[in-house]
Amino acid sequence: MEAARELGAPDDGSEDKPSGFLNFLFGSDDSESPKKSAEEDPGTEPVQGKENENRQSNDPKQNKRDKELSNSVEESIEYWHGEDRVPDSLEQTKEVLTEIMGLGASFDIVFREMTFGGTKAALLFISGFAKDVILDEILKRLTYLTPDDLSSDAFAAFMQKYIPHIQVEKSEKLSDAMIKTMAGMSALFVEGEAQVIIMDTRAYPVRGPEEPSIERVVRGARDGFTETLLSNIALVRRRLRDPGLKFELHQVGRRTKTDVAIAYIDDIADKTQVKAVTEKIKTVNIDGIPLADKQLEEAIIGEKWNPYPMVRYSERPDIVASHLLEGRVVVFVDTSPSVMVIPTTFFDLCQHAEENRQTPLMGSYLRWVRFAGIFASIFLLPLWMLFVLHPELKPAPLGFIGPHEMAKIPLLVQFLIIEFGVDLLRMAAVHTPSPLGSAMGLIAAILIGDIAVKTGLFVNEVVLYMAVATIGMFATPSYELGLANRLVRLLLLVATGLFHVAGFVIGSTLFVLLLTINRSYNSSYLWPFIPFNAKAMGAILYRQSVVSSSTRPSFNKTRDNTRMSENEGKKGKP
Known about the structure:
Structural class: alpha+beta
Number of helices: 21
Number of strands: 10
């Protein structure tokens, strides 16, 4: 009988009722009987509801947790503890840490309670950040203590005598202990003391310095910045052993507490500019910057629809050191392998470290070739389209320009398709594994490009000039500048294709006006072209030797404008 009931077979008293399987398919009035009985009997409650109520009743703090709306560590401490001070009881400290830091819920947060010389203490740290060797040495020293060693003032004895570590500080704020623990440090709480000892025992997972893939050079240093702030600062200090080099540390983000360092040379940089950058960073009020320097740039620069970069990014310590000597301000952001150089100009973004690794003559040649590539990446395609649409504008020596046979697709549509195709190819190259990258290039170049031309969809010259413009974009030292130039080229193509001569002239004029009105921290973006400075413009067009550059760039408004005395400059000349 029981087996029959499980299979849905009717029992003796249910001949006229559908079976369990049929009841499941077609429904039955009896299916609502449990609901009706539950509604009719107010004393009956679902089992799950009882379990939830029992769980809430067993945890009286659950309602308080549900009502918490803290936006920072300080607010959370005041919510649970009443004030931002270290409790003098280890048990109370443990309760606060349980509610705020998730002690007991997060497996990597450790609160190790021990007794040293008869005094109870607890060590708070994150297992993934703590350096085992340092903590072992500290604990080994503390285990040898006797009650006589800590008879007078245990906290002072720990702080001044018995902790064999260099970077040690004390604090009375519980928020300091939590924030620095989340940054990788260790906090030692002592029973009966409303203070905490904070020790720098962190060891971040890091990679070794490698040459940046975007700023490679044939000759020169092979080290580059990493994602660790201290390592990046050390790479710069290795090149600038100047006591005037300052690194001011700030934290950005209510939740992330990201370390941000502002670097400058005290007796060279413009103090007004340093103060402006510092105040901008201090006023950033967001929950965090997990994407590091780019989000910080958006917060302090505020340019929403301007395609051109207002700061220069670099991953090379030698480039950053050179800019610091020019009087620039450099912003380091933890977890980012690139730094921001403020202010910058359009011509700064067009220069590469390789030019300064060659002789002045060869460096000037490489610079001119690079300038030609950047110019071609912007104006080559719109000019070619203009000459095709208006052959009367072509100079006599350029009479060969233009397709001999028109393709099935209009020229403007051809350019737009290839533009978007190149961008799609570039994005695919970023996400394609290295072993498959060459295969993808062959597919794009041979199968797509060659077949599109042979079938008559595209003109040969369109593919050719598009390839030249793309090479010019890739030859641009600044990746952000290359993308901005590519967008301007696209807009010029559309304007020229729709409005012909007027579109090209008006578009080029608006492009120059855009660069003219741009200002990078109150500095002209087109300096030294606008405002014109003949000497500085000559230094842009022709790479000068070190002994010829006796002064720093004037647009930085440096306090010390001289690189060397006039007599030293004359001695260096042949």
